[in-house]
């Protein structure tokens, strides 16, 4: 009885911590930072603090703004998140703005290449959160995908090598896979999006077709990746991305309307954390060749 009670307490603590990380956007910001770190290592560069901080700050800013502008939809789709944002949303938005301004200011003071492109998060935030372009079918998904795809390009600008396979392949890979993830994510919001007149892939084509399409794109991405490695466009260490694709393929069948926000915000967004750990492990084991 005591053991069962202990497990319940531990489970409750884990869910509470996970919910805090997800609703505060700290987890998604860490995940985006993981994309920058994974790209840096795959491209053969040594990680540095500043570009990782810039990605974290920009992500926290963009997502915190979006949570505030989407709070009415969240009341229908994710009431637990809406309650959290209603209480703490402005605090995390202020933190996001402050960190983002610090990152932008630091980039300009240091004269970093590509510093002017740091205004892109503001453009993305305006398009997505203020101008409501997400009401257009697929536009939201493409914006999300390209926004995450820009992260590898930012890494390339920082290290002075943008138009090279080690950067362009992650750009294409993450753009495609994050577009897929965004479409799968919309499955949980079907009821609220339909009520709000938002046309998403799951609403237009249905949840099952969305999952099948997502799996098909995931398989195609894997085939394309293996092909690029086989012909020598990128080195063998890029095959670690197959682990990422396996993770994606594993969660897609379970992406249903009845899954809670922790499945979507922790398991799905956790794909980037999983990849980062895989990349770090291969580097530590000397398998990244």
Quick synopsis:
Helices cover 76% and strands 0% of the residues. The chain has 14 helices and no strands.
Task: Using the coordinates above, name the CATH class.
Answer: Mainly Alpha
Whole-angstrom Rg: 19 Å
Q: Could you give the order of the helices and strands?
A: HHHHHHHHHHHHHH
Into how many domains do the coordinates divide?
1
> Architecture, according to CATH?
Orthogonal Bundle
* Number of alpha- plus pi-helical segments: 14
Q: Distance N terminus to C terminus? A: 51 Å
The gross shape turns out to be: globular
Number of E-state strands: 0
Strand content: under 5%
Mean pLDDT: 89
Structural class: mainly alpha
The largest sheet, given as strand count, sense and whether it forms a barrel, is: none
Helix share bin: over 70%
Q: Which stretches are poorly predicted, pLDDT < 50 over at least 5 residues?
A: 1-10
Q: CATH topology, which one?
A: Farnesyl Diphosphate Synthase
